[in-house]
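Entry 12.
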Amino acid sequence: MAEIKVPATTPSPAPVTPAPPAELSLSDQLTKVLENLKEAQLQQDIIRYMSCYSYLYPTLDERRQNTVKSWENYRFMELSFFLDEVRPRGPDNALAQVTWKIQVQNRRTDEVQNLTQTFRVAFARELGHWRIRSLEELEEGEK
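Predicted 3D structure (tokens):
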């Protein structure tokens, strides 16, 4: 009977598994939501814009209508934000203060306005994504 020879093999090195990405801080995760909101506003992308809001946002349909109306009347030229006072409220909720610096141009008059608005923003994690659950504009004395 013929002998079967199996070629000698050298053991292959263990596959290199990349380390999982470091978990983003809560501030970084919320910043991603706000960056997405900013880009949607500048590009007038209502689907992307609304994806930043919770399904449970109290006036979701009104927010959509007001946003579309503001795009009809104003061109958003510049947007920047500052995220402050980020506080977790359990694993799926957070509260933060967000100050927006906005430059808009009135489409009818071409007048340019610079605005600053500060909001207390409640975020909720829904289906694995952070979204804006509610927001309240803060008056000058509340900041």
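Annotation: The mean pLDDT is 88. Residues 26-138 form a domain with the Nuclear Transport Factor 2; Chain: A, fold (CATH 3.10.450.50).
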